[in-house]
Amino acid sequence: MMNQRLRRSRLFKFALGLLAGTALLVACTPMPRTQSQAEAVPSTAAVVAAPAAPAPAPRLGTQWGEGRESNTRSVQVQRYTPDQPDEVASIGYNDAASVRRGVGANPERRLNLQLAQGDVEWSVIDESGRAIPLQRARRGGDDSFRLAGAEGARYTLRFRNLSDRSYEVIATVDGLDVLNGKPGSLRNGGYVLRPLQVLDIEGFRKSQSEVAAFRFATPGRAYAANTEAGDARNIGIIGAALFEIAQPDAPRRPRRGPDAAQPNAFPADGATGYAPPPRYAK
Fold first, then answer.
1. Low-confidence spans in the chain with pLDDT less than 50
2. C-alpha angle 89/95/97, rounded to 5°?
3. Can you tell me the distance from the alpha carbon of 144 to that of 92, in angstroms, rounded to the nearest whole number?
4. CA torsion sign, 227 to 231 to 233 to 238?
5. What's CA 111's distance to the chain center, in Å?
6. Looking at residue 56, what is its pLDDT?
7. Whole-number pLDDT of residue 143
8. Residue 190's CB: how many other CB atoms inside 10 A?
9. Which of these, 4, 39, 79, 253, has the minimum number of CB atoms within 10 Å of its CB?
């Protein structure tokens, strides 16, 4: 792996509720190489809370594994929308037998998820560097993807930026922020993912130079079950949120929105959800 010199982001002052986030630059590297040095944004709270717990009940969690070298430095960044992420996503995980029962026969399979309108690819990488297949049922049940893990196996969260935008990536494992080990929150700081870079998150951060590797383990040995901030009910879920961040001398590009001229399959959406007032006869 190769250390990359990453330019410091300028300090932006926030007003009227804008967050001042400090991000970590951990292992961000130009594609297709993986990271060894990364930028991280200091938090104002904790990391992304996982949207929903996977089913069935988890038989795997994520352990606080061995130390792995991972260098970071803190930078100051500005989110375009401090309280509104561009994407929030989650992946459930469990042992292979439980995943098979959950997704049924002939599930949909992918090697990555497309986030932020295709700007970022998110995958989970095994110890040999291969993407672990993501699966979900084609019919019925929830629409979340799951992956099958094996007790003792190490894994890495990989985010590949395919765009010319910069993002702050907030990640949680078993409901805990991978940077500070606290309950997940969108108000936390995250890792900076620059244009055309790859960010590998290999574990829970212990210091600016080391992380504790992610390793699948029994729920009783999971980090979330053995730390005060953890909640065993959140074991078995990995979360990610992306915020686009400002780049010096690079104004934000307009986001792709729905074409008003196109037919709308759900025309009632967007209404207030309340009964309209009566129209009395005169």
1. 1-22, 26-29, 32-36, 45-47, 49-54, 258-262, 264-278
2. 115
3. 7
4. negative
5. 16
6. 60
7. 73
8. 35
9. 253
User: What does the pLDDT read at residue 42?
Assistant: 67
For residues 184 and 239, what is the distance between their CA atoms, to the nearest angstrom?
9
96 vs 196: CA distance, rounded Å: 33
What is the predicted pLDDT for the residue at 38? 76
Q: Three-state secondary structure along 133-166? A: CEEECCCCCCCCEEEEECCCCEEEEEEEECCCCE
| C-alpha distance from residue 161 to each of 11, 36, 157 (Å) | 23, 16, 13
Name residues whose C-beta falls within 8 Å of residue 9's C-beta, 6 or more positions apart in sequence.
23, 39, 75, 76, 77, 192, 245, 247, 248
Which pLDDT does position 11 carry in this prediction?
A: 34
CB 48 within 8 A of CB 241: yes
Virtual torsion, Cα 94, 100, 133, 182, nearest 10 deg: -20
Evaluated on CA atoms 59, 63, 65, 69, the torsion sign reads positive
Write out the two tokens for 68: 């792995």
